[in-house]
Amino acid sequence: MSAYVPPARLATEADLNRAWVNKAAELGLVNLSTLDGEDLIVVRVFAFVDQLVWPGERRSRAISRNLEPWQRQAVNAARDSARDEFTKLDSVLWVTPKGAVVTHSPGEHAAFVLNATADRSIFAGIPLGKWIAELPQGLETIFHWPSQLPIGPLPLSDGTGLHLAAFSTVPDQVTVFVAGHGTPLQASTLSALQKHVATRHPGGHVRVIERPLESGSSAHTHWFELYERPDGTLVRRPLALRELLDDYGPQLNHIVQPHDSTASRRRSKK
Fold this sequence. Notes:
This protein is of the alpha+beta class. The protein has helices at residues 7-13, 18-26, 37-50, 69-81, 106-114, 128-133, 187-200, 241-248, 250-256, 262-268; strands at residues 92-96, 99-103, 124-126, 148-149, 154-155, 161-168, 173-179, 205-210, 222-228, 234-240. 35% of the residues lie in helices and 19% in strands. Strands 4, 5, 6, 7, 8, 9 and 10 form a 7-stranded mixed beta sheet that branches. Helix 1 (7-13) packs across helix 2 (18-26) and helix 3 runs antiparallel to helix 4. The two termini are 33 Å apart.
């Protein structure tokens, strides 16, 4: 579970007015003394459903009201999803006048839409997985995503350091992401990197994944897993960033898009 975040910062990171945090607390959806990344998702979903008006409805924002059953179901589903090991980047929270459903893959999304019944023909979709993956560093929620391992940069011969991010994934394996370098890794650098990691986390296989050199951070961009042939040459196997985000969660998202914070997104809207 992520660290405590004050109400004002939670509102800022959610790109919402502080009043939404206070209102969620008044309704018993969050506790102001124990706010964390999970609550950030809850408040963001709450603000969405509280402003959602179905066709044929009329209501005034000036009138104070309690949560309707479908709204509470949506908020509860969001909190459950923040704890669910099946939640992925593609997960969508579907909200209907009758309740809420979470789907986790394009096939499940299509089935929900195509199988809509008469009482579920009106719905709204919330990109829940994406919202969770956008959480700021330190506020990650889903417990099954691996934690980062402490590891320093790899010193290079030119006096600079190679930025590394290491994760413990499967038993006896450390996965290392390499980012922020100007040229592709060479075999000698890969060997030095593996020794660097092994001295800090001994006894396991070191898996190395390299960030692409081209600019851009689209979820369709490929990263590369590095393998060394017996003759010393390197093989680069492409990996889809979307799949990596499913496995490593928000932590990797910060490596991929270190500049894409909530604050920068907010500035871009002005």
